[in-house]
Structures are given as C-alpha cells and as structure tokens.
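G., the chain you wanted modeled:
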Amino acid sequence: MLRDSLDYIHAHPEIYFKQEAKKGGYVCPVCGNGSGEDGTGVKLIKGQSFRYKCFKCDTSGDVINFYAAEHQLDNREAILQVCALYGLEVPKKKFKKIPRTHKHISSNAESVKNQAETEIIANDIIIAANHLRETDYFAKRGISYETAERYNCGYIEQWTHPTKRNANNIFPSPRVIIPTSSESYVARSTDDNKVPKMKAGTTSIFNISVLKSSSQHVVVVEGEFDALSIIEAGNDAIALGSTSNVDKLIDWLREKNIRPHLPLILNLDADEAGQKATDKLADALLNMRIQFYSVILSLKAVRIRMKAL
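Predicted structure as tokens:
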C-alpha cells in the first residue's frame, strides 16, 4: 500500500539524503548546504518526526518534497521515483497529490497564505499525535489510546488557531486534536470552562473513507467523539461534524458512486437541525437507491424508522 511505502521512506531518510553534513543533519540535495565548513545542512524540524528544512535554500518537507525540488518534479512523479529508489513496490493506483512544500515564487498571495496555513495544520496534527498520552481526556470519554492513535488523534497543551497565532490577546488552551483529513482537524478543549470546539482547515467528514470498504453497518453521527465511541465498541462510524455537512456527504456519495455493503444507520441528533438533516440525507439516499435505517434516540423514547429498498 502507498501509505506503508511512505511510512518506510519517512523512517529511513538516510537512504535518500545519504551524505551526512559536517555539522549534523544531511547535505542538502538541492543546494549542497552542509558540504562545506560553514554549512548547516538539512536539519529535522523540531517536534516533527520526518519533516526537514534547509535554512540556506529554504527547501522544507519530507523526503518526497526534497526529491521533487532536487529533480524539478511534481510530487506524483517524485513518489514513483523515490519508491523505485528505495526498492519498494511502485503504486499503480491513483493517489492524491501531496502538496509541495519547498519555497517557490508565486504571484498569488492568497495561494501562498493558504499553503502556509495548510502546512501549519499538518504540523499540528503531527505534533499533537506525539503528545497524545499526555492527556487522559480520551480515556475519560471512553476512548482507548489505541483507538485514538488509529485515527491520529492527539493533544496540544498550548493550542491557538492556525490563523490567529500572530494576533494579540489570543490565549492558548489545552486541546485534543481529532484529524478529519490530512489538512484539517477539530480542536476540543480539555478544560471544564465550556470553550467551544474549533475547526482548522477545510471542513471534512471524519472517517468518510470507511464507506468504501466497511463490511458492517456504518453509523452516521454528528460529533467526532460520538463516532469514536461507536468505533471503540467495535463498529464503524463517520461524523459529519455539523448538520451543514450533509450536502458534502451526499455529493461525495454521488461523485464516488459508493454502494455500502450493508444499510447505513442514520443517527443524527434529535434536535430540529438534526432531524432536518436526517430527512434531507434520507431523501438523497432513497434517490441513490442506498439502503439505510433512520434511528432517532431521545431520553424518553426510542423510535425507529426503517426504510429499506
């Protein structure tokens, strides 16, 4: 699998970088920094496990990013060539393009800003995962460390939103991080001060890819912790994050032409917004001829509506 190949590449940077710099790190394959007496070389970015930076040419990222910069390739081609360099199976299926992280000139200031924010978000996810076991918040919610690690969840003790880190009068707070994609996450406060959860990056649906492969009934819920609780119990689940993301799920199912193995279980919140979202999703599923059960849970009663084609 591509993910396994990338994990191996990240664990063995020395196969690509090869030459060690005189002052630690590696000689930069892009500009040669580190080969002379005064060069600092390519150094590991503090707090990250596989991302590097050359402070001379400003190239940064993982092995793939450096290889792409060295050979002037896009990252798709770089992945193919690096896999071959490492003696790994070259992936044959299509895969998502990994954003290039080495510095380049851009006339679009907004694009540069978005790219910088994306890198911060990706870095947050990595840093948080490395500090997961410094909080017992997941355990208090009934989520094991093993389940949290499986979904790259983590913890940042002094968190601020990626878009606000240069602002004044912004006070950090301890947050657990639940990634919803490689470039987005939900940050939930571990304090008891009722600080609202916040989202970073483009809104994405938690664990949506399980709809492609699950052999179980997949439960559709609103909250990420609700989904993790269901997963902890041994079932599969996805979390919309918000009822406003129902359209995203519908569009994704249509675009990917997904046909779940078993009927979906719709279990959104019992409030007015949740029920409107349930009705909208149910209508769309009926039109797509996707089987589902709609389950409405409340404190006073349990009402089950079954709609199977």
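Residues 271 and 298 are 9 Å apart (CA to CA).

Shout if anything looks off.
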